From TrEMBL:
Lineage of source species: Eukaryota, Viridiplantae, Streptophyta, Embryophyta, Tracheophyta
Name of the protein in its database record: MSP domain-containing protein
GO CC annotation: endoplasmic reticulum membrane; plasma membrane
Chain ranges of the MSP domain: 9-129
Pfam families: Motile_Sperm
Family as reported in the entry's similarity comment: Belongs to the VAMP-associated protein (VAP) (TC 9.B.17) family.
Annotated stretches, region: Disordered: 131-156
Lineage: superkingdom: Eukaryota
PROSITE patterns: MSP (PS50202)
GO biological process: endoplasmic reticulum membrane organization; endoplasmic reticulum-plasma membrane tethering
InterPro entries in the cross-refs: Ig-like_fold (IPR013783), MSP_dom (IPR000535), PapD-like_sf (IPR008962), VAP (IPR016763)
Biased composition (Low complexity): 135-147
Amino acid sequence: MPAGEDKQLISVHPSDLKFIFELEKQSFCDLKVVNNTENHVAFKVKTTSPKKYFVRPNTSVLQPGDSCLIRVTLQAQREYPPDMQCKDKFLLQSTIVPPNTDVDDLPADTFNKESSKDIRECKLKVQYISPSAQGNSGDEGSSDSNSTLQQLKEDRDAAVQQTLHLQQEVVC
């Protein structure tokens, strides 16, 4: 790890973007970005495939200790990638800016490495998850998201059952 990367200005959760991939359907992944410093920090999200993804906000300024949610939307695709593997990557750049800097006032070279600013970078990988792989433990790389998805489904089903039970109690 290069010397400048040991203390990030911001942290990003989750560290990988996971999209449920279905033909002709959009899918999205939310990232939470947290400013870990006592400074105002500007960030910008870049990707190797800008036509495939819609990122909002893709640039912003966070106050000290503040956080924001970034929604990354995978546009509807017409064909499956080979072996459902995705080589797309995202780069989240961050740098300290003066207090009260508005995102619209950021200089054009804010995230230019040649501008002699201290720019930190965080790389994010992209994973595609097949909707048919839900519950299929043989699918490497997506077992974490599958178990999370399975847990969410179980929680939802339990909540539905509890709602029905409460409705029956109210009626009786």
